[in-house]
Amino acid sequence: MNDFALEVLNAERGRTHLFSVGQAGYVIKSFSGQIMGVDLYLSDCVERFEGHVGFKRLLPKILSPSDIEFDLIVCTHAHLDHFDVDSVPMMLANGRTRLLCSLECRGLIDRLGLWYHEEQICFVAPGDCVEFGDFRLRFVDCDHGESAPDAVGVIVFVDGKSIYEVGDTCLRTDRLNNIPDDLDVLIAPINGAFGNMNEAECVELAELLRPGITIPCHYGMFAAHHGDVGKFYELVRDKGLPFCIMRQGERFTLTNGR
């Protein structure tokens, strides 16, 4: 078991922890020690399927899918850096981890022959709410273009906190429904390619929602995905908005106050 997995497993109970895995992947650990993952990209399957250097994995693999037995995993859409076809079957192999995924992921589940895990799988769409253990999940609308028409964002309510992972989406201010006024954490892409927000649009979203803290994602993994975290830093700093740029493997512990 690697150091990152040990840090997640050993993170103190009684506090809410958020860990960055890279790309758009995050691990959340609750007060009681329950663990969920969102959009975990743990392999190099994108490079294998895309077949060119623009999608070579540039960040190290810091977590093996067998290192942590997740209570719950979420895949916001069927692109392989969000539904990792090499890792999802391994994470479901224990017979207890629940998978919540967008409707379009059905095709990947068919291809992988995962229907013997049918009781562990739940398909979700905007407007759906799911309660599982310490986690209450509200799935919300996003716009990732024609390549992922059923993509979703997710708001995770845990331990009295709210964490909004917008998913892969362009900036759609007309679709910001059911977002808490007292949002604790906003996680949003900055790569500005493949239908995603760029650095300035991520900061604009943060200005609109005024979360306790904004965390940029979707940069650094692939050359073809772009994303300038330095530009985000300058823009968000100039606006005076609270933010955290998380390095891969870093832990952010949510406090009682925003």
Question: How is the secondary structure organized here?
Answer:
Layout: H1 3-10, E1 16-22, E2 25-29, E3 35-38, H2 45-50, E4 72-75, H3 88-92, E5 98-102, H4 106-112, E6 121-124, E7 129-132, E8 135-141, E9 152-158, E10 161-165, E11 185-189, H5 199-209, E12 213-217, H6 229-239, E13 251-254
Parallel strand pairs: 3-4, 4-5, 5-6, 10-11, 11-12
Antiparallel strand pairs: 1-2, 1-13, 2-3, 7-8, 8-9, 9-10
Describe the structure concisely for a colleague.
By secondary structure, the chain is an alpha/beta fold. 19% of the residues lie in helices and 26% in strands.
Please state the overall shape, judged from the principal axes of the Cα atoms. Answer: globular
Order of adjacent strands in the largest pleated sheet: 6-5-4-3-2-1-13
* Overall helicity: 10-25%
The percentage of residues in β strands lies in 25-35%
Low-confidence stretches: none
Computed CA radius of gyration, to the nearest angstrom? 17 Å
- The CATH homologous superfamily name equals Ribonuclease Z/Hydroxyacylglutathione hydrolase-like
Q: Which fold name fills CATH's third level, the topology? A: Metallo-beta-lactamase, Chain A
Could you characterize what this model shows?
There is one protein chain. The longest helix is centred in the C-terminal third of the chain and has 11 residues, at 199-209. Strands 6-5-4-3-2-1-13 form a seven-stranded mixed beta sheet, with no helix packed on it. A six-stranded mixed beta sheet has the order 7-8-9-10-11-12, covered by helices on one side. β9 (152-158) and β10 (161-165) form a beta hairpin. The protein has a single domain (3-246), classed as Ribonuclease Z/Hydroxyacylglutathione hydrolase-like (Metallo-beta-lactamase, Chain A, 4-Layer Sandwich), CATH 3.60.15. The protein is built from six helices and 13 strands. It is an alpha/beta fold. It has helices spanning 3-10, 45-50, 88-92, 106-112, 199-209, 229-239, and strands spanning 16-22, 25-29, 35-38, 72-75, 98-102, 121-124, 129-132, 135-141, 152-158, 161-165, 185-189, 213-217, 251-254.
